[in-house]
Amino acid sequence: MIELDRLVKNFGDLVAVNQVSLRLARGEFFAMLGPNAAGKTTTIKLLAGLIKPTSGTARICGFDIQTQPLEARRRLAYVPDFPFLYDKLTAWEFFRFTGQLFQLDAARIEKNARELVRRFHLSEFVDRPIEGLSHGTRQRIAIVSALLHDPEVFVIDEPMVGLDPQHARVVKDVLKERSLAGMTVLVSTHQLSIAEEMADRIGIINGGKLIAVGTREELRRQSGATGELEEIFLSLTAPATGAQ
Q: What is the pLDDT of residues 48-68, one digit of tens each?
């Protein structure tokens, strides 16, 4: 459902993404971890088609995001770490606008939106202009709008930004339920607890390279660490030491 094949992205002399290859199956819940400036967000933007790779390919459900963008994006939902919303619209207006972009009929938009609004506890906010809503409420609106068209692939960067524990739990539950029903989920996060709790596999990216991929037990064997995911992560991403 997600295929990255030797992706490279250079910004001048900086190699932000370096030969990243990855395959995610239908229904897989995958967490991408990495230090700051490791290449996580750039990799996600390449996958979503927001920037062009220097070389390599990214495919969604078999469709190349660069050469078959409409077919790929019909099947994809992407929520960035700071999602863009139209502040002058109400949440309902934004949901209708988003649904129409994906060519959903009015009845399906209404049905899907009402169920998601109920699930994400947004009923009291849907008729208010988005500009007056809190960051956490805006984040939930962005996630609901991304789920409206029942995507086959869901990509989200730092999903819990601004969410209180109650609504973070809702997001976790909904994404895991969708994953179990067949939606492929890729989460990029700094929160190791999300990866530990929810991911089928975990990928660790550092210096633009995908340095380790596997279950927590597989990563433990690769790292030689014996403790929790934090110890494994720190072991795999520790700066190299040696003579200067």
A: 999 999 999 999 999 999 999
